[in-house]
Amino acid sequence: MTAPLDPRVALLLDKIACTELVHRLARGIDRCDADLVRAVFHPDATDDHGMYQGTAADFVPWVMEVLAGMRRTQHVIGNVLIEVDGDKAKGEAYFIAHHHIPGPDGAGDNFMVAAGRYLDRFERRDGEWRISHRHAVYDWSTIAPSTDMWDRAAMPGYPFGERGHADPSYPHFTGA
Amino acid sequence: MSMVRPEELADRLAIIDVLNRYARGIDRCDLEVLRSVWWPQAKADYGTGEIDALAWSDGVVPALAAMRRTQHFLGNMLIDIDGSTATAETYCRAWHEVDSPAGPQEMEVGGRYLDRLERREGDWRLLHRRYVLDWSRNGPSTAQWDGPLYGTLTRHGKRMPDDPSYTGD
Asked: Would you call A78 and B9 a contact, using CB atoms and an 8 Å cutoff?
């Protein structure tokens, strides 16, 4: 039996674990990696994105289809407040989500920014924290024609972000 | 990406400090702070190949100083610690205002830093940094510094040594 942790250290570890779930979920979404997204939720977790309300299990294919209609996204997480109460926690995470999306009917691409907060509920089960409920709240948004200047096809070898395992972060984390 | 172990806590916080210090060095054009994030052998690759990170730092500060202002806003950090080495991914939304013949332009770049760090004698620093580009937004600057609202917010960010974080103003 190891000595019990200083409660201040234990609280810090719980807050980091919950914050990391928020960051891992953003990574799963931006890389369109259904396995990564699934892994942050408890099996019976639920999600309320406004336009989607239901189980987290069904949220995954729903969001992957939404993402497939976009060229790329980046969900930047800012302020994260976590309140821990035993094996449960509540979080508020600010986000600024950037979406590069094709315009309607072959028009030029648009760049849409949506900002808001993820109101999360976390639970620790068998020593592992995961999200049990996510509620996305939207605060503001902007949309304008894309002014992205990179001709990705003409710049081979440049380190552009990709969806899925083509992204350089995968070999980065596996040490390949 | 595993759960955080208690003994990793101090390492994790030290690594976050290094990542944040890079952004501070860049935005304040503070070469000493920027150089302090790298080990002497560190390499950086921003897309044009691997280069010596300290030499890159020496060159980038005057280039940044030639811009009107920058802000490197760090977000999500995923940090894997394995003994005295660590692997990290950090989201960054980098905002630049630069002069051009057509007037000031805003360039905003969303990207990620893929880092390898090492701890030596208790000190964490970057050994290798790769920058990944996700999106960009470019156009004439809409920065506004006067008027009924902005005119009252008079304490503006500056570069070293004039920034309020140095002067205490």
From this structure: no
